[in-house]
Amino acid sequence: MTEHTEQRLYEIIPGTLIWVTFIFGILLSFTHPLIVIYFIILFDLFWVLRLVYFVFFLLVSYSNHRKVMKVDWSEKIRELPGWEDKYHLIFFPTYGEPIEVLENTFTELSKIKYPLDKLIVILGGEERKKDDFLPKAEIIKEKYGDKFYKFMTTLHELKSDEIQGKGSNLNYMGHEVKKYIDEKGIPYEDIIVSSFDVDTVTHPNYFARLTYLYMTVPNPTRASYQPIALYSNNIWESHAAVRVSSFGTTFWLLSELARPERLWTFASHSMSFKMLVDVGFWQKDIVTEDTRIFLQGLMHYHGDYRVEPIYLPVSMDAVTGANIWEAGKNLYKQQRRWAWGVEHISYLGMHFRRDKLIPLKTKIKFMWNHIEGMYTWAVAPVLIFVLGYLPLEVGANQAGWSAIFQNAPYTLETLMRVAMIGVFVSAILSLIMLPPRPKTHPKHRWLIMIAQWILLPVTFVLFGAVPSSDAQTRLMLGGRYRLGFNVTEKKR
Predict the structure, then answer these.
(1) Which of 10, 54, 433, 438 could form a disulfide with 346 if both were Cys (CB 3.0 to 4.6 A apart)?
(2) What share of the chain is helix, strand, coil (3-state, %, to 5)?
């Protein structure tokens, strides 16, 4: 079997699982409705139990977040000898973002509770956007460049073995800044890297907390460091469906932070420079580079690599648009790009098969978590809110006599009522974690922030299952259906 054939087999599996479920679910609803009803009830029961599990870890993680927030980490790190020897290298890849976004990011970065002369900041543009990038980079350099230990700009030109996106830009930025680091003779182990979207605003104590973790956890270069990802920079100006989806992403990640044994990196996060050099920096032909860089470390160190939760937030922009339709389209594209993380299944499978040093338990855990996660992302909303009621509508003639058939609507309704616990907890936490209401918004806007959660079933399907199924189907078909990197539009 060739490497290409093996890769294609792995790529076909996720989409096949989805469409087998959908096709057989529809066909059997007409021919054997009782089988489908049994399956739906069992699946809904599993989903409710999983939701209870989710809520438990969500609350545990939120409690940890509150505890970490109460500590002044800028004072705490002074208890550690040698903390001044650590440098923070921050990557900001850009692609046409407005100057207002860049200025806000650097303004907030200059306010952090950490010595700015320990920060190496690199702003990376693309050659194809250089006429847009260079004037903005000059403005940022003039206003903020002298605040840091070192401020650099790079201009990446796309090569034939690369795809347009953050991964290829970050790869180029990494190799360029390595020249400077080698020239200065800074030990790789003393450099902590943060790969940020250019709209990322960190908590003031983020770098102090990150330094403390890096200096106190075992084998710090064998770990990535994951903050809480908030999409709240412009949350008050975004549309309701966007807000529900954004908080859904935050709560998913927040619950995962309480289970670091299954945690992967996502969006803006941090890691050691030594690991980046060891793996050759980010892959240049990948869409979801934020997770892949963690997997590169996992493979390079034969399974001895992990994610440490930071429990402090970084805030980014929620997707936007000129109107609700534009915002919905951009949200769909963002979710589909995130769902393209299904491409990691072939990477995992091919490397696991060849690497005999990675424990079998580790291989099973990572493959199961990723395949199951991608499958339920695409299938669960459809089964719960759509397909689950089809056999009840079309199967009365064949199974109407069955007690299971007659009681199924009440059973499903009861399960959905129990599932409302998750919606209630999410709604309360979303209000607690909202940034202060801008004075330009009326007080009754708070009522909208609560009422918006009635949109959850719609966003769950339209901006969850559909884009996820879209991405996995495209990967299954391959060729011209494969996705490239889609840049999320940012406006202020």
Answers:
(1) 10
(2) 65, 10, 25
User: For position 492, what pLDDT does the model report?
Assistant: 60
Per-residue pLDDT at 425: 85
Alpha helix (H) residue ranges in 280-400: 289-300, 324-339, 344-354, 360-385, 390-394, 396-399
Give yes or no for residue 265 having a pLDDT over 60: yes
Q: What is the dihedral of CA 345, 346, 351, 353, to 10 degrees?
A: 100
Helix (H, G, I), strand (E, B) or coil at 269: strand
Please say whether the beta carbons of 30 and 364 come within 8 A: no
Distance between CA 104 and CA 389 in Å, rounded?
A: 48
Q: Residue 435, SS3?
A: coil
Pairing mode of beta strands 87-93, 223-230: unpaired
- Extract the tokens encoding 134: 């260079």
Mean pLDDT in residue range 381-385: 86
> 10 exposed, middle or buried (CB, 10 Å; 0-12, 13-18, 19+)?
buried
Instruction: List, for residues 89-108, the tens digit of each pLDDT value.
Output: 999 999 989 999 999 999 99
- The strand pairing partners of 340, in sequence order, are none
Question: Which of 338, 342, 291, 292 is closest to 319 using CA atoms?
Answer: 338
CA dist 453 to 127, 278, 425, Å? 42, 45, 11
Write out pLDDT tens, residues 425-450. 888 888 888 888 888 878 777 788 88
Strands 306-315 and 201-202: antiparallel
Q: Which two tokens stand for residue 53?
A: 């599990």
Torsion of CA 285, 288, 289, 294, to 10 degrees: -120
277 token code pair: 């050099």
| Mean of per-residue pLDDT scores for the chain | 91
Distance CA 16, CA 26 (A): 15
Give me 297's structure tokens: 């470390």
150 three-class SS: strand
What token pair was written down for 70? Answer: 């109460």
- Parallel, antiparallel or unpaired: strands 119-126 and 87-93: parallel
Domain ranges of the chain: 1-492
Domain boundaries 1-492, CATH class: alpha beta
